[in-house]
Amino acid sequence: MGQGALSDGESPPGRLSSGVKVTEPLVDSTQQVRVNKPSQPLVSIVTPVYNEAEHLGECIESVLAQTYQNWDCTIVDNCSTDGSAEVARHYAAKDGRIRILRNQEFLRAYPNHNVAMRQISPASKYCKMVFADDWMFPECLEKMVEVAEEHPSVGIVGAFSLQDERVMWAGLPYPSRLVAGREICRRLFLEGLYVLGSATCVLYRADLVRSHDPFYNESNFHADMESCLVLLKASDFGFVHQVLTFQRVRSGSLAAISSEINTYAPGMLHALLTHGKDFLSSQEFETCRKRAIADYYAMLGGGFLRGRDKRFWDFHKKKLAEAGVDFSRVRLATVMLAKFGTALLDPRRSLDKARQIAREVSQTSRAVIPAKETRS
After folding, report:
1. Nearest one of 76, 77, 71 to 45, comparing CA atoms
2. pLDDT band of 337, cuts 50, 70, 90
3. Which of 7-16, 259-268, 329-338 shows the lowest mean pLDDT across its residues?
4. Is the peptide bond before 214 cis (omega within 30 degrees of 0)?
5. Who contacts 373 (Cβ-Cβ below 8 Å, separation ≥6)?
6. Strand pairing of 236-247 and 154-163?
7. Mean pLDDT value of segment 313-317
8. Does the pLDDT value for residue 3 go beyond 60?
9. 29-248 is a CATH 3.90.550.10 domain
10. The whole model's pTM is what?
11. Are 114 and 212 in contact (CB under 8 A)?
């Protein structure tokens, strides 16, 4: 039997001996048109996992259901304690393309993601991360590889994604199968258009990943976005106008934390100050810098109206300092008076405004900046 083979002890159908449920295939594999030609490039898939026994089977089944079959998959177990490792071993025993790596000690999210990216096969031409609580639609690899093969200058291929009930990462005109990397980044800074998604949503050219180690900036809450900006300095962007992945959003995830303390403003400010000059003219950069700081203070004004706690203010004071921007109570008061005006003088209007701001901030942080679970 393969790595991590299970014992022969009897267990109910569809369930491991520990009682962990094994997900039934998302798609009847006998009904799928398999695409597996000798000339097809290898795609290395990596899945970091920590205590995702409930969803890991569904994730792996989506890999097995791909119409594109020239792949290998490495599951990086970050010291799970809930049966995730047993689920992974079950599938590794069934398919030799699946292997398991277990960390000797628990790692935070992005250090673990870097460990995962280092596991891509030396023979792979493309690579893809799929988080353990996400999954791919059957044509995901086929459609993404097709675009990358059509356009050798493409370093990243993206697509629409279903985030619970919402279709994400819209904004490019159809078909936009090839877009200059510089244009994608300029539109991010100048227009706020974000179509890069999270790591689950994109396919990377593997040689670019190998040439950037560590791949993710472990000090950046939004390292997914920053890694894309780095790659797009020297490559182009491909896009498939089709929903190819599913992203799960739930409490305890980085997305939820991002929404709670609003990491979008510091994330954008960091991206602009670190990478903006590579895509913008001096005048454009200065205009974007001023707007980013103004937007940051407007967000802080909303935080004040919502009565945010010390953790919120400590986080944002630190991020402003890291960006070389002084935290100014005078500016905050000025912004609040200018933006919220008479609402501050009317308690009922102030409360309504705070609720409106909370909804806008929550929607913005979910729709624009990718983030994933701290546990993986």
Report:
1. 71
2. confident
3. 7-16
4. yes
5. 50, 109, 131, 133, 252, 253, 254
6. parallel
7. 94
8. no
9. yes
10. 0.81
11. no
Confidence of residue 71 (pLDDT cuts 50, 70, 90): very high
Which part of the chain is CATH 3.90.550.10? 29-248
For residue 171, give the nearest of 367, 307, 9, 3 by alpha carbon.
Answer: 367
Structure tokens at 70: 């020239």
Q: Which two tokens stand for residue 83?
A: 């049966």
pLDDT at 82 exceeding the cut of 60: yes
Q: Which amino acid is at 229?
A: L
The neighbour count for residue 314, using CB atoms within 10 Å, is 11
